[in-house]
Request: fold
Amino acid sequence: MTAAVVLDVEGTTSATSHVYTELFPYARSRMAEWVSRHGHEPQTRAILDEVGRRCGRSAQWDDRAAVRTLMAWSDEDAKIAPLKSLQGLIWRQGYASGELSGHIYADTLLALRSWLDRGTSVYLYSSGSVQAQRDLFAHTQFGDLRDRLSGYFDTTSAGGKHCPDSYRIIARRVGAVEGQVLFASDCVKELDSARSAGLRTAWVKRPEETSRAASAQGTHPHALYRNLIAVAEAQPG
Reply:
């Protein structure tokens, strides 16, 4: 029995190209201006202070140094909480202004419907912040899909995606034993960690995401499935 499904976002529910060609550049180009305008506000101030702590703040440290660090992390695609939090704040403004829109694959919508009909709870787990996840699914090309989701996890609330303990934490928080939780992702390392924690796994392989899967070697169930429709159809409710 599948009590809960946990979905990766980038490359699984949503196109990697959307993240790298639209979302990341949008946030990076606005970081300095955002800090200049909002650096005094508690949420942004906390982000900047955390950057300083992680970098061993010196007497010469200031907000400009924090911005340079955040930009460097962005260029590296670093999965670091303060970067993800700042990106989420900037994207939220972009969604509100209409400059940004979210993206999900069409089969994601159909799979969400299938799981909802079966009474299966669906959660997201991404290195992107919980706020960024909510905003992306609130502004998809199919409308606001947040009512299809039961919750969200990120590296702050659950831990790193390559750490088995993160998946144990998620299973406990969704109120299910590990064997009743299915984790679907296009990333084999994430799937390996989830399986080590006792979760069931589904390797999502998409023609559009060939560059990410080309060098991957995995032995996970459903390794031949190419989209979330197949994963949904293969799982009893």
User: Anything to note?
Assistant: The two ends are 7 Å apart (CA to CA).
